[in-house]
Design goal:
mainly alpha, Four Helix Bundle (Hemerythrin (Met), subunit A), two-stranded antiparallel ribbon, 6 helices, 2 strands, 61% helix
Length: 166
Amino acid sequence: MSFYDASVPAFLQILGSLQGVLIKAEAFCKAKNVAPEVLLGARLYPDMFPLTRQIQTACDFAAKTCARLTSSEVPAIPDTEKTFEELKQRLASTVDYVKAFKPSQFDGAESRDISFPVGPTTMTLKGQQFLSHFAFPNFYFHASTAYGILRHNGVEIGKRDFLGVS
């Protein structure tokens, strides 16, 4: 399996599922007369990011991981989204960005040194370690937490929604 095949489809699957659960969350707010900003600002615990930031961070991990693995310029994307529509646009833009990569751009990525910020420091890992031990765990953490926030707040979604197969 190529490094492209190991990464890009996984990012696209979950980014697509996040688009789907956001559509259901928006419909939930309308049906239950819940102000959208209440759900968008919801957290699983006070010291965790709210739903909006979970989506933004998942998008960042998908886009920036692909950029780093291909030695492309890492995009700087401001976190300005405040509505469901803006978050759906962020997801759509991220999907388009990730889809634009070609398999050949990932050639050699598994053994390439990948340097990335971790808080105030910079860490360097080989591409394989970066993807499997840092990027994927973080991407899935933020996607799962977004799903958990919605489910905890009563949005009728299930595992099939998270997997994007419903």
